[in-house]
Amino acid sequence: xxxxxxxxxxxxxxxxxxxxxxxxxxxxxxxxxxxxxxxxxxxxxxxxxxxxxxxxxxxxxxxxxxxxxxxxxxxxxxxxxxxxxxxxxxxxxxxxxxxxxxxxxxxxxxxxxxxxxxxxxxxxxxxxxxxxxxxxxxxxxxxxxxxxxxxxxxxxxxxxxxxxxxxxxxxxxxxxxxxxxxxxxxxxxxxxxxxxxxxxxxxxxxxxxxxxxxxxxxxxxxxxxxxxxxxxxxxxxxxxxxxxxxxxxxxxxxxxxxxxxxxxxxxxxxxxxxxxxxxxxxxxxxxxxxxx
Length: 292
Description:
Helix content: over 70%
Number of strands: 0
Largest sheet: none
Structural class: mainly alpha
């Protein structure tokens, strides 16, 4: 083997070593981050099956010695003894979550299509306002939302939980960025064939935005499922499951197991939606695409 071939082989081995080292480093970092993300879920499940006497053990243990399902039984027993049945809280959460998810996807998709593919005075300003709105959480405008809901006489009304959540800057920004990638030639061809903007939006553009739409569904469902009644709804029959969990958690350490049992119960629907939507996101990204 010549000296040149030896030098090329050594250089190739160094590149392979660097790639393997980089891959190993990325794997380690992602594994550590994954463990940190799974730790709260693990602790929630452990706390939900801990008996009351183990909750007061010091120092706290990261595992359960004698697992029990008494916390889940006490959770259903406590809500069964209340004036409002547990099924009512579930219905309220499901109704609010489905309404917010569907309406947010509809309005975000239509508004994103107009902002991405229609030219009108003030469109650039509106796009800048949407980007700036991403910097603020809902807590910043909470007082203003309460004032608006009060003027509309929607306090103690389920609509007070639904209407403010329909407008989502993150969902609008996500859909606008995705629709912006669609070639203008497709839309111009549809206009030549006589299609209107509404038909172009729902029959041509939106069916090709499945990855962004499924991602929006995941975010919208998760946010809507965790909506609390707060200071907008006071009647017990209109409260949602997160409100009941917060009330149980505020009852003291002795009720921490019941609160964690309710939290585990609330983890199930978002996980199911995430698994189902993620599958469609991956399949669509792998098999779809639009080119000029």
